[in-house]
Every structure is written in structure tokens, then in C-alpha cells.
Amino acid sequence: MPDGGSDGPAGSTIRPAAVKLCYSEMAENHPATIAFWKALDNGSVADRAAVIAELKTAVDQHPNEEEFALLHGLANVWRLGEPLPSESGDQAGLITTVTAARASLERAYELCPTDHRVPAWLGPIIVNWGRALGDPASIDLGLKVLQQGIDAYPSFVLFSKVLVYADRPKTDPDFQQALAAIDANVDSCKPGDPACGNTPRVPHNIEGAMIFLGDTYAKAGQKDRAVDRYQSITKESTYPEWDYQTLLADRLATLDTRIKAFETPDAADDPVSAWNDTNQCSICHKR
After folding, report:
1. What letter does residue 272 receive in the DSSP assignment?
2. Rounded distance between C-alpha atoms, residue 105 and residue 72, angstroms
3. Strand (E) or helix (H) holding 225
4. Is the pLDDT of residue 91 over 50?
């Protein structure tokens, strides 16, 4: 499931033994770090450009700090997932954002080769940009990076196969990889793993993840499993504070229509789903 960022200083939660973050107290308490989390907590996309600029300054001033590189990369991923109207049609800006996201995430992984969460974001960036360019070598590289993360931290990184494969046609074997990944992801979770629960920095991780799972099952035509995942959200103690209750109600009310729309061979009439919506980060992070 998507634990979309840091949940605190290294060692504060239970992860696989091979996974270690390389954060410093200085970076954790830096104004750029605080500004990033404040903006993400509030869903403040209008503040994002300033946050990205502040993080870039921090990266330049402290080039050996993993957290600054990682958050700069993630802030650019946020821009890709939830663009402002002025950003969504800006092709030059898109290229700049993808380039910045990839470079910073690669730098973060270079600085901290044991932070095997990084491939969860880096792999899809490389794969999807490779697809956009028609570059098989980039696609292969992105899949290799993604698999490296899956091997080390399956409960965290398996979920990202949804970001790589869920938009494939329902009949495409690649879509089955997304479907298999979410089942394997759930099976790989252990108590205390921040990838599998709500955390201070990802307060609605479970709620958002269940929308992704429900949408995937809906596309697969598995109505009962979709309903189960959607309805499980209401049992979370954090559900009353979640901003996307209306979205959940709509998913349940239109489920039969959504499943039917996915049956047609024309992807143009597919309903918007979690992996191509404009709330991909906020659905888990916004308080």
C-alpha cells in the first residue's frame, strides 16, 4: 500500500531489515522539509511551486542529504499527479517536472541505497516517460528499478505496479499484473509496517489505498471485491476526517456503470480512476 513519504526519523517504525532511511535531524527539522509536509497535509497545490523552489535550494546547499533530494523529487511527482490548470497543458513544464523528479529520486537512492521505498516512485516515472517517448530501453530500466524495490520492500513497492499497469486495457495481460500486485501487496503486509497503515505523515493511507484497490477490482469486473474494499474505508477510525467521503459514495453508487464502461474495448469511455485522477497524492495525505 502507498506510504507516500517519510513517516518520521529513520528507525521510528518497523520495516524489513534491509530497508533503512538516511535522514538527519537537521534535514527533518529544516524549514524546507516542514514547508513540504505542511503543503501536502493541507492539499495546498497553490503553495507547491514555492515548496519546490525551497527544496531545490536545500538540495543545492546540502547535496549529500537524502531527505532533501527525496522530497524535491516527491514534490515534483505531486505536480505530475495533481497539476494546476496552468500546468496541465504545459508540455515544456511537464518535461522539466519529469526530469527534476527523476534526477532527484535517482540522487536520493544514490545517497541512500537502503531506502528501498524510492523505486516505488522512481520506477513508474521512468517507465511512463519511456512509454511517452516510445523508448523501450527506458521502459525496461524503469521496470528493473521497480523490481529492485519490490524484492527489498514488497509491501511498499508492489503497489506501484498499479501506477504502471492499471491504465492498460482490461484484456491486456499487463493489467493482470496490476491486479496480481495488489493482492500480493496486501499479503506482504506485517503489523507495524508504515506501508500498511495510517501514519502521521500519511494520515489516510488506508482510505486512499482502498480506493485504488476498489477501482482496480472494478476494472477487473470483480464487483464483490470492489464493494468490500470501498466499504472497508468507513470502518477506519480516521474516516470521519477524510475529505473524500463524497468520492467514495459516488464509487459505490455508480459501481455497476463503472464496471460496464470498462467492458467496452474503447478506453476513451473508461471512467476516471485513482491512478489517473487529479487527487493521487491528496487522497492519502490531505488531513
Report:
1. P
2. 8
3. helix 223-232
4. yes
Residues 23 and 11: their CA atoms lie apart, in Å, by 10
- Rounded CA-CA distance 48/56 in Å is 12
Cα angle 260, 265, 270 (rounded to 5 degrees) comes to 55
Q: How far apart are CA 127 and CA 141, in angstroms?
A: 7
Q: What is d(CA 189, CA 268) in angstroms, rounded to the nearest whole number?
A: 35
Answer yes or no: are the C-beta atoms of 199 and 21 closer than 8 Å: no
Per the confidence metrics, is the pTM higher than 0.85? yes
Q: How far apart are CA 40 and CA 202, in angstroms?
A: 10
pLDDT, position 89: 87
How much is the average pLDDT of 114-131? 98
Three cell numbers written together for 134:
516510445
Q: Please tell me the distance from the alpha carbon of residue 56 to that of residue 62, in angstroms, as a whole number.
A: 10
CA torsion, ordered 50, 89, 175, 78, to nearest 10 deg: 0
- d(Cα 1, Cα 150) in Å, to the nearest integer? 12
- Beta bridge partner(s), residue 199: 202
Q: Is the pLDDT of residue 167 over 60?
A: yes
Concatenate the DSSP letters of all residues of 11-46 into one string: TSS---TT------HHHHTSHHHHHHHHHHHHT-GG
Confidence of residue 13 (pLDDT cuts 50, 70, 90): low
What pLDDT does residue 2 have? Answer: 41
